[in-house]
Specification:
Blueprint (H helix, E strand, L loop, with lengths): L1 H24 L2 H12 L13 H21 L3 H25 L16 H20 L10 H24 L15 H4 L10 E10 L2 E6 H5 L8 E11 L12 E2 L2 E2 L1 H5 L4 E5 L8 H16 L3 E6 L3 H10 L5 E4 L2 H7 L5 E6 L2 E7 L10
Parallel strand pairs: 6-7, 7-8
Antiparallel strand pairs: 1-2, 1-3, 4-5, 6-9, 9-10
Helix pairs in contact: 1-3, 1-5, 2-3, 3-4, 3-6, 4-5
Length: about 375
């Protein structure tokens, strides 16, 4: 019985680590954005790691996949189980911290393919920890499935393929797009809220300075005159109590000079969007390609605009540096990171329908009608 439980645990943990790793390996840039959230000063306060987020993301997801393969093969069981235990203990702490303090709303465990709430992520990690502890106690029952040379070759092949996949999707785009802005999506429909959808519930919170410290006091306590004597009103905010229906696309805007052009742009029959969430971080190679493509698209009747979260001064410098003749409009950086991973990248719209998306390395493959 002990052996059966161990082998079941071995299969469950190995398969789950491989699936979870491959989903994130499909989009390592997206996972690096999630790590940046964790490294933020408001969460783990490890901002010095933010510049290395992509490197860490690639290492973690490749290691995750390879560990799953090693476990299934029975390759170096002691090292494998210890590594699995260390990873799951760390991620269990991380998901508990996020859930308890409500710091990061989605752990990114399965990328954009499967969204888990913080408590769901923590529960998943606790279950995994249970199965890994079974493996830890019964390490001697994890026997090799192949000869040593065959296992060495298989593990090396798994590592090499993962490394190649990470490099490929970084130079192009994710092999499978799980995001709300995937090709075939109609942006207007993605922003719609169905009739009768559950609405979010908020609680009004007042902030008073009490003995020099900003203190939150509920609306009920304020109405009941329970504000401490001498407290000074500072601000009021709405605290989310219950999350209602959130449409897949809920933060897409196109603005310029204080005006909202979202609706008018989405009604255009042919639109080219150059997405560059931060012009300071845009790849020079890609930026040099945009103006030539702009001219080709304009000649075929396309409306061409850039989308960025950068300020007007940086936009002016960028346009001058690369001799660009199209206008940039403002859109939130997080939204632009969600739309596309490359910086810059190309998105083709037809009346709000996303018909093509491309990394700047594949700009010559974009078809213009």
């Amino acid at each position: 019985m002990k052996n059966i439980i161990t082998q079941i645990s071995r299969i469950l943990v190995g398969v789950l680590f491989i699936i979870s790793g491959l989903i994130k390996l499909n989009d390592p840039i997206g996972f690096s954005y999630k790590l940046e959230e964790y490294f933020n000063a408001n969460v783990l306060n490890m901002e010095f790691l933010i510049p290395f987020a992509l490197l860490i993301a690639c290492f973690v997801v490749i290691f995750e996949v390879v560990l799953g393969v090693m476990l299934l093969l029975g390759f170096k069981p002691k090292f494998t189980v210890w590594s699995l235990l260390a990873m799951i203990v760390f991620f269990t702490f991380l998901t508990f911290y996020s859930a308890y303090f409500n710091k990061v709303t989605d752990c990114g465990c399965f990328g954009d393919a499967l969204k888990l709430t913080p408590w769901e992520s923590f529960t998943k990690d606790v279950i995994l920890l249970f199965f890994i502890l079974i493996l830890f106690v019964n390490q001697k029952l994890i026997n090799p499935l192949l000869s040593k040379p065959a296992m060495n070759l298989t593990v090396f092949a798994a590592y090499s393929l993962c490394l190649f996949m990470a490099f490929y999707v970084y130079q192009h785009l994710p092999l499978k797009d799980f995001r709300a802005y995937k090709v075939g999506t109609n942006i207007q429909k993605g922003m719609e809220i169905p009739e009768g959808a559950e609405k979010s519930e908020y609680e009004m919170i007042f902030i008073y300075k009490v003995n020099g410290v900003d203190t939150e006091i509920s609306y009920a306590d304020v109405m009941a005159n329970k504000v401490p004597a001498g407290a000074e009103f500072v601000d009021r905010k709405d605290k989310l109590i219950k999350q209602g229906y959130v449409p897949p696309i809920h933060d897409f805007t196109i603005e310029k000079d204080g005006n909202d052009y979202t609706e008018s742009v989405l009604e255009e029959p042919k639109v080219v969007l150059f997405v560059a969430y931060d012009l300071n971080k845009s790849k020079e190679k890609g930026m040099k390609l945009l103006e030539e493509f702009n001219q080709k698209a304009a000649a075929k009747g396309y409306t061409v605009i850039g989308l960025t979260s950068s300020n007007p001064e940086l936009i002016a410098l960028t346009k001058h540096r690369y001799n660009q003749n199209f206008d940039y409009y403002f859109c939130d950086a997080t939204t632009l990171k969600t739309i596309e991973r490359a910086n810059p990248s190309i998105v083709i719209l037809e009346k709000g329908n996303i018909v093509q998306k491309a990394h700047f390395n594949d700009i010559d493959k974009v078809e213009l009608k």
